[in-house]
Amino acid sequence: MADKKTQDTQQDTAPKPGKKNKIFLIGLIVILLAVFGGGGAFYYLKQKKAEELLNADSVEEESSENEAEQTENTYFVSMDRVVGNLLAAPDDPEQRDKYLAFKLNLEFFDNQDRKNIEKLFGDIKPKVTHAIIMTIPQYHTGNIITTEGKKEFKEQIKIQVEKLILEAAKNYKVELHNKKEVLKSVLLEELLVQ
């Protein structure tokens, strides 16, 4: 009888072969659900992110097309490198004068006037270079290296160049579509203070 009692106790404590398989199967299902659920969530989020990127790209393309349309009526003329004397900063009397070397591009409005302006510009280019060189001594090392100083410098060049082109158009009796403003901007390509 004692043998029968110990045998029953061993059977109760011993795991049943089907119970182990059920635990393994449930664990496998949980892991598979986690993997496929995580993969599905990852895929969904990536799709959403991809759609956002595509929308952002299309917005950028539209804005770049708008910019292209806005700059479509402009063109550029490159100037040779210009070198001039730059005064020492007034607050530093020990500092010696330096050189300012730069290269710039002139952005003109209205492609309809392009041939006329290019012809005029070719005729007056030495005067333009001279006017730019004469603008340099108005600046010193302390203000030409600041952002505001560069903006003011470019604006002064723009005023001088535009004045020369409009005077030349009047003198050569060249008809321009825009008689007040032909130069859109002055772009510094290089700027070296030495």
- Poorly predicted ranges: none
Task: Determine the number of helices (DSSP H or I, runs of at least 4 residues).
Answer: 5
CATH architecture of the largest domain: 2-Layer Sandwich
Order of SSEs: HHEEEHHHE
Shape: elongated
| Radius of gyration computed on alpha carbons | 38 Å
- Under the CATH scheme, which class of the largest domain? Alpha Beta
| Share of β-strand residues | 15-25%
Estimate the helix proportion, in percent: 55-70%
Major β-sheet annotation: 4 strands, antiparallel
Plain-language structure description:
- There is one protein chain.
- This protein has 194 residues and is an alpha+beta fold.
- The chain has two domains: 15-72; 74-193, Tetrahydropterin Synthase, Chain A, CATH 3.30.479.
- The protein has five helices and four strands.
- Strands 1, 2, 3 and 4 form a four-stranded antiparallel β-sheet that branches.
- It is elongated, with a radius of gyration of 38 Å.
- The mean pLDDT is 80.
Q: Which labels suit this protein?
A:
2 domains; 17% strand; four-stranded antiparallel beta sheet; Tetrahydropterin Synthase, Chain A; single chain; alpha+beta; 5 helices; 194 residues
